[in-house]
Amino acid sequence: MTSPFSKEIVAELKESFEAFDYNSDGTISRRELHALLHTVGHKVNSTGLEDLLKAYDIDQSGTIDFQEFLELADFLIKNKLKK
């Protein structure tokens, strides 16, 4: 899977991902994702959070791994720029 981001941006996103991966298991849980979204200014309710998980948790593990996170970040960045 190719990333729409430069190597520098991927490195920054990896830092952010790791900062919110509180238990360092290599994934972002529902709780961690909610905290991350809140921090970057994307206010979501529980339904919105579930919708994002369904859409971007490609392997249906219940968590977001880094590759899935890159897809989610791309969506969030594009969505934020449209507002």
TrEMBL record:
Source lineage: Eukaryota, Fungi, Fungi incertae sedis, Mucoromycota, Mortierellomycotina
Recorded GO CC terms: myosin II complex
Protein name listed in UniProt: EF-hand domain-containing protein
Keywords in alphabetical order: Calcium, Repeat
Domain EF-hand: residue ranges: 8-43, 44-79
Pfam families associated with the record: EF-hand_7
GO molecular-function terms, A-Z: calcium ion binding
